[in-house]
Design goal:
alpha+beta, 5-stranded antiparallel sheet, 2 helices, 5 strands, 32% strand, plasmid, DUF3888 domain-containing protein, DUF3888
Length: 121
């Protein structure tokens, strides 16, 4: 009986006690994080894009699901390091079942406010 107790205590000590199971929370992939930031950035620029598109082409519509950020450049001039120039391509259309009208490229200046620098297309 004494040997059984010694062996049991020894096995218990060597295996680290009672085994516990824990589940790790899955981390989002880098691709998923990129997608979330990408979509959030498009959403923040959306009111300015809508105003620019409605001003130039009042009958056209667009969707954010197929908008593409073409470039994003940090402009380090002046006081702040948080100035950016962003080029976004929006695919516009007129009506739900019509073919696309063509892409529109809008260049934004993003600092403490958002300004539209150029609308091409």
């Amino acid at each position: 009986m004494k040997q059984f107790m010694v062996v049991t205590v020894l096995v218990f000590c060597l295996t680290g006690g009672i085994a516990t199971c824990t589940e790790a929370t899955p981390k989002p992939s880098i691709k998923q994080k990129h997608t979330d930031f990408y979509d959030a950035f498009l959403m923040l620029l959306n009111p300015y894009a809508e105003k620019a598109i409605r001003t130039k082409y009042p009958d056209r519509s667009y969707s954010l699901w197929n908008a593409d950020i073409l470039s994003l450049k940090r402009v380090s001039s002046g006081f702040s390091n948080y100035n950016f120039v962003v080029k976004v391509k929006y695919h516009t259309f007129t009506g739900p079942h019509n073919p696309p009208e063509g892409p529109l490229v809008i260049t934004f200046s993003v600092s403490n406010e958002v300004k539209i620098l150029k609308v091409e297309g």
